[in-house]
Write a structure and sequence with these properties.
This protein is an alpha/beta fold. It is 23% helix and 24% strand. A hairpin with a 4-residue loop joins strand 9 (158-160) and strand 10 (165-167).
Length: 197
């Protein structure tokens, strides 16, 4: 399984071409996205509209995994789904939710906005104390044992295999947010590629 997040499809600052190149080289079977998949779609959508948007994102990213898991933001950027979504889109098993998504009882996928709504505040928190938002989220969700927490929102990469916390960082590079993200493999937490800044 590979994990990345904070793609921000639709932003002129998103490094989509670099991400697509990386994903093409990996050709993953399972993909998990930690939210902010979109940049400008924060509105209530129907199930049909959600399926259309996710299909478009799959096309833009150029991926064809067997399974796609998406923990959409509930505070900004991503569409607000009518509820948890499970569907088959062009042969891909898709699970999406504006909240947490549990994958095979091994990974809990979250955008991270459950503990800090404002993305810039989350950025500052994780920049000054790496992984702080993830640690707060892990406590709030009462995660224990061997379950990985993969979160986004702050755009600040953080990998700690002992704590089983991963923030893959962001693919939208702008303003003071100059830290690039990566694509990670789990459970190894191995970085697979980086955006070109």
């Amino acid at each position: 399984m590979i994990i990345f997040g904070d793609v921000h499809i639709g932003s002129r600052h998103a490094k989509i071409q670099h991400l697509k190149q990386c994903l093409r080289e990996i050709n993953p079977e399972e993909v998990a996205i930690t939210g902010d998949l979109f940049d400008d779609q924060h509105r209530r959508v129907s199930r049909d509209e959600a399926l259309r948007l996710i299909r478009k994102a799959i096309e833009i990213l150029g991926i064809r995994p067997k399974a796609l898991y998406i923990a959409l933001s509930s505070s900004s950027h991503d569409p607000l789904l009518p509820g948890p979504l499970t569907a088959k889109i062009d042969g891909i098993e898709v699970v999406a939710h504006n909240g947490e998504v549990i994958i095979n009882d091994k990974v809990l996928l979250s955008h991270g906005d459950k503990v800090v709504k404002n993305g810039f505040v989350a950025y500052l928190m994780d920049l000054t104390n790496r992984g702080r938002v993830g640690k707060m989220l892990k406590r709030k969700l009462k995660l224990e044992g061997n379950i990985w927490l993969a979160y986004g929102h702050s755009h600040v990469p953080y990998v700690n295999p002992e704590e089983r916390i991963l923030n893959p960082g962001g693919w939208k590079i702008y303003g003071v947010r100059r830290i690039g993200g990566n694509v990670y493999q789990l459970p190894s937490a191995k970085p697979l590629c980086e955006p070109h800044l």
